[in-house]
## 1
Amino acid sequence: MVLREIFPKDTIVLNLSSTEKDELFEELVETIHSYHPKFNKQEALDCLNERESKMTTGIMHSVAIPHALIPSMHGAVGAIGISQEGIDYDSLDKAPVHVVFMIIGGENETEHHIQILKQLATVLQIPDFVKNLLSLKSSSEIYNFICNSEESLLN
């Protein structure tokens, strides 16, 4: 299971303090760095902003998936952020973002990165996934919900 490995409980931020995209990137990169201290935070921020300048990663129904491939990274790491108030994100639908899945991968691991994005996109298609995710009250509940959702796709 892919998402279980990328989004551990310790990188789930239940109540984001960010209200804008730039703050959000810094907050989630810091969260990832706390759990995986070996990657370069500034490099991650630069690559995330460069990727975002090409096209927004605010994709659908209050969800954003900022992602980047960086030279100093081996493997992939991620964080999930939840904002009940919403974040001004310049999304495709112009609506605020409430759920953010940030993924940082190694620049030579494109295939794995695509696999993660594909699995996440599949989970997001589960009816009421985002609505149910937003109703959860702890990082453990969110982690278990994502793991169970991913597992249900395999059965």
Note: The chain has six helices and six strands.
## 2
Amino acid sequence: MTIEFLDGTGRALVHPDEAFTAEEAGEIFVHYFHTLTVPAHYVLREVDLPLPTA
């Protein structure tokens, strides 16, 4: 799945299990806020996004 950002000038290829609903994102945020970690059943990966060209 491709996620567009910066008014369509940037794109990121993500796996379907890396895209969250607003409710899931909220739960992840609250957990991170309290613990400074993501919930154990999530895995972090580095994303290298190129800067958009003007």
Note: Residues 28 and 34 are 10 Å apart (CA to CA).
## 3
Amino acid sequence: MASETSAAPEASPDRAPGEPAPGRSRTLRQLLSYTLIGGSGVVLDLVAFLLLHNTAGMDEQFANVLSTTLGIANNFALNALFTFDRRDRIVVRFLRFYAVGLAGIVLTNLLFLVFTDALGFGADLVKAGSLPLVLALQFVLNRKWSFA
């Protein structure tokens, strides 16, 4: 006799077998939208970083703070409108979103300390390499806290 926890989930009469549950579909759509919007923020962040650091000669950590802040503002506006469709408590949500963004800044700056300062990797490579890790961390935190 199989226990209830080991039984396979039954297909809902409203969806085909193998089709994701509505909550799961929504999460996947949000992740896709968040990733696409995040891509625009990444491009903005990276271009601003390269200009500030390589062209203007700004310290990589300070350039990272400014470029990431620009990307955060871009991503907040687009995610509030399209990904999470939330327009209430906009100031509170932005402050939470920015706090999550600060976590990304701190993580990236720690990676600079380890990989650029201690191991000699180029700052551009470290910045680019940090982006997927930061994106994943921030999606989870923003979905659960900023836009909950």
Note: Confidence is low (pLDDT under 50) at residues 1-12.
